[in-house]
């Protein structure tokens, strides 16, 4: 079968590239919703022991819904209230919001109480149940004390409906009565020593992670806040909500993308112009790289259904490595001079490019093994981008670079490369390597490690401070720790949660815990309700006894008749709880109907000591503490240990590939530069006081892949440029500098994980590029 000609291959590749470009454009802009993702939760791996716990983590994280929680603060009470009203009035008409609540609508408190009346006898506090079962309980005395009690401000039942106050006591335990926020002048208000806080809640018309929704809502808030600040200069606005965290992540990623993408593109363009002294090689290199990035974006969205902005930041840095393949081809063209033949040039660079591609893909493939969605996205993005960029050299570039280069490589770069190559090759270089290894030992000994989750997610401190204040003042915003209660049925879950909350109640009494939010404070188990009925039964058997006691205490017969007739009422069920509008904000506490089983969530308040919280679940079946940050931190540490092993395995695999290609005598020389790059990079991190993290080790795998490329490029290129000493190494240095311009800029990222990637690659690529001459015999005309 006749092989395809250069123009035919280029035509097929151009057609495939056009299809990829159209596909990429449709995936990004043609489906109505953007695949760009800013939700930090999608970066986190599954760390819990089973899917129900992971469902609980996500449910709790999204409990606040797509809304802004705003707290207006001022030292003056009237000013705070006026500012809150004006803020609500400014936000309400904006189409970015589905609803804005500042002033409370008129409502009848009886509407909050009346739904509970049929269940009143089944709902008792532990204290009332204990009092009823204590020998010597005097119903008449209890009724008289109730009649003489002052009435509080909390929501409660009428005296005739609740003569003993049992229902009132139970309602006092409900979440809306435990909040520090109190209705005042139709506003939810908290008074502190530093002034008055007023709550405003704005519900978004769409997802917090939708870019359009974010921009519209934040712009509306900025306008409203500006107007508020202008009229009330001393008033402060605190905020929390998923939208602010998502917007912060998006802003950081966009900043990183611009810094890395624009700076590296401009830097690489200027460098290529200086080295090749022609615009055509620059355009060819960027066409090859752009096709790689477009293919990478399309493949990542197809595989994952989305593209996280942080992956896009990494993709911007990938420019520096993807351009290596076209640079090597263009260097071969420049070095060939008038004897250039495009097809022969492909055959010349093919072994080096394929071997280099294999080592790079090995490093990126190991990233896909780690159970972090972020790293897996990076792996797919990089593997696709590198493969497409390399394929473009074989299929497209020969048609674009048919004519010989007008000028050779910049003589200054070649002279610089030759000078360093003479120093860094031969026996003298091996002695220098040994000395560097000795110098590296103290750096290794100084090395520590850090597996904190904030390496992956680092929200702005100002936003974290505001969230903490809102949680403290108003009780909004949950923590990241909670107890998960599981069972075979709803009743078993409720009984197990009650075993936990009975223990927590004792902790609250001892001052170990500030409180908790759980389902059984609102919905007792059927067994607990049965015990409540059993405790009350002696008072209503016969009913006439209760009627007589009420009369003795001073209640009129016509008023107390309804209370006696209502006994025993009916049990309060899960369906009743779910149907009550008052409990809608707390439905996230109950987990059922899903494929992962039945469970409930109990959220602690006023305590974040994981060891203490874990002790609360000791010995309780079906109860466990879920601590997502601690789980991820532990996972970071575990996979950091695994990554060390993987790095050693990858080094062995690359060594075997070099052994197959170069034989025993030369393979160790080609492997030495990337291996030394890893050793010296880790030592440098130790000297810099940088604790070793999972992301440093992952970056070292890329140092292995990229560093192996440079050794291969030099080893394979030397025989073809014997007439131009230093030209092959000049091409390696050019590739290294372009990589440093891209990956090195990640060291300026706002995200710690990318910063660690960038710093490690900056060190590793630099060391490997400088040590690459060790892989080739010293030039014959060296003067050593």
UniProtKB/TrEMBL annotation:
Stored SUPFAM superfamilies: Multidrug efflux transporter AcrB transmembrane domain
Entry annotated with the keyword ATP-binding: no
Membrane topology of this protein: Multi-pass membrane protein
Main location: membrane
Xref: PROSITE patterns: PROKAR_LIPOPROTEIN
A cellular-component GO term for this protein: plasma membrane
UniProt xrefs under Pfam families: MMPL
This protein's UniProt keywords: Cell membrane, Membrane, Transmembrane, Transmembrane helix
Subcellular localization, as worded in the UniProt entry: Cell membrane
Residue ranges of every copy of the Membrane transport protein MMPL domain listed in the record: 193-423
Transmembrane segments: 258-276, 283-304, 310-331, 352-372, 378-397, 429-447, 645-663, 670-688, 694-714, 726-748, 754-774
Protein known as: Membrane transport protein MMPL domain-containing protein
């Amino acid at each position: 079968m006749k092989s395809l000609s250069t123009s035919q291959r280029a035509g097929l590749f151009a057609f495939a590239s056009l299809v990829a470009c159209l596909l990429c454009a449709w995936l990004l802009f043609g489906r109505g919703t953007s695949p760009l993702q800013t939700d930090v939760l999608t970066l986190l791996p599954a760390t819990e022991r089973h899917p129900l716990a992971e469902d609980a983590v996500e449910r709790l994280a999204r409990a606040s819904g797509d809304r802004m929680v705003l707290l207006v603060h001022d030292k003056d009470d009237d000013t705070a209230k006026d500012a809150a009203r004006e803020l609500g009035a400014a936000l309400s008409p904006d189409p970015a919001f589905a609803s804005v609540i500042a002033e409370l609508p008129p409502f009848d408190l009886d509407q909050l109480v009346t739904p509970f009346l049929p269940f009143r006898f089944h709902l008792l506090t532990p204290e009332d149940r204990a009092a009823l079962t204590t020998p010597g309980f005097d119903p008449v005395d209890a009724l008289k004390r109730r009649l003489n009690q002052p009435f509080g401000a909390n929501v409660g039942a009428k005296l005739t409906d609740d003569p003993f106050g049992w229902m009132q006591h139970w309602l006092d335990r409900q979440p809306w009565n435990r909040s520090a926020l109190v209705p005042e002048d139709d506003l939810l208000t908290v008074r502190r020593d530093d002034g008055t806080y007023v709550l405003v809640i704005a519900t978004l018309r769409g997802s917090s992670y939708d870019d359009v929704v974010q921009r519209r809502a934040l712009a509306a808030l900025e306008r409203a806040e500006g107007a508020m600040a202008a009229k009330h200069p001393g008033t402060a606005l605190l905020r929390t909500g998923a939208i602010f965290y998502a917007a912060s992540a998006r802003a950081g990623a966009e900043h990183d993308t611009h810094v890395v993408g624009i700076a590296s593109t401009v830097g690489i363009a200027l460098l290529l112009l200086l080295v090749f002294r022609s615009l055509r090689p620059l355009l060819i290199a960027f066409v090859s790289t752009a096709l790689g990035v477009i293919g990478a974006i399309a493949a990542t969205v197809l595989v994952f259904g989305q593209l996280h902005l942080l992956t896009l930041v990494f993709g911007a840095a990938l420019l520096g490595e993807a351009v290596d393949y076209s640079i090597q081809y263009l260097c071969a063209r420049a070095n060939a001079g008038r004897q250039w033949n495009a097809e022969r040039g492909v055959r010349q660079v093919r072994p080096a490019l394929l071997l280099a591609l294999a080592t790079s893909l090995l490093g990126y493939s190991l990233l896909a093994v780690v159970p972090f969605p972020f790293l897996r996205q990076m792996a797919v993005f990089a593997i696709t981008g590198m493969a497409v960029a390399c394929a473009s050299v074989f299929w497209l570039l020969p048609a674009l670079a048919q004519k010989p280069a007008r000028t050779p490589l910049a003589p200054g770069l070649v002279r610089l490369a030759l000078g360093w190559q003479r120093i860094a090759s031969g026996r003298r270089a091996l002695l220098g390597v040994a000395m560097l290894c000795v110098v590296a030992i103290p750096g290794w000994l100084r090395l520590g490690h850090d597996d904190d989750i904030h390496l992956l997610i680092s929200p702005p401190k100002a936003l974290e401070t505001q969230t903490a204040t809102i949680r403290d003042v108003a009780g909004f915003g949950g923590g990241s720790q909670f107890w998960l209660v599981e069972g075979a049925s709803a009743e078993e879950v409720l009984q197990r949660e009650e075993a936990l909350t009975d223990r927590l109640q004792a902790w609250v009494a001892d001052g170990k815990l500030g409180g908790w939010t759980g389902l059984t404070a609102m919905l007792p188990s059927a067994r607990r309700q049965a015990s409540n009925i059993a405790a009350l039964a002696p008072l209503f058997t016969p009913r006439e006894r209760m009627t007589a006691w009420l009369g003795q205490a001073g209640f009129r017969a016509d008023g107390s008749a309804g209370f006696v007739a209502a006994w025993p009422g009916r049990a309060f069920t899960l369906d009743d709880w779910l149907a009550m509008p008052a409990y809608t904000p707390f439905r996230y506490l109950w987990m059922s109907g899903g494929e992962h089983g039945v469970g409930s969530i109990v959220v602690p308040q006023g305590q974040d000591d994981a060891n203490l919280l874990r002790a609360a679940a000791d010995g309780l079946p079906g109860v466990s503490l879920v601590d997502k940050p601690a789980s991820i931190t532990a996972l970071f540490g575990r996979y950091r240990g695994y990554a060390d092993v993987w790095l050693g395995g990858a080094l062995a695999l690359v060594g075997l590939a070099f052994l197959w290609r170069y034989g025993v005598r030369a393979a160790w020389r080609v492997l030495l530069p990337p291996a030394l790059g890893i050793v010296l990079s880790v030592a440098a991190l130790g000297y810099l006081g940088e604790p070793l993290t999972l992301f440093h080790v992952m970056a070292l795998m890329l140092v292995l892949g990229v560093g192996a490329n440079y050794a291969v490029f030099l080893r394979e290129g030397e025989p073809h440029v014997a007439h131009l000493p230093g030209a092959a190494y000049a091409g390696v240095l050019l590739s290294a500098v372009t990589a440093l311009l891209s990956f090195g800029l990640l060291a300026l990222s706002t995200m710690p994980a990318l910063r660690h990637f960038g710093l490690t690659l900056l060190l590793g690529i630099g060391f490997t590029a400088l040590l690459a001459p060790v892989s080739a015999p010293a030039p014959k005309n060296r003067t050593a």
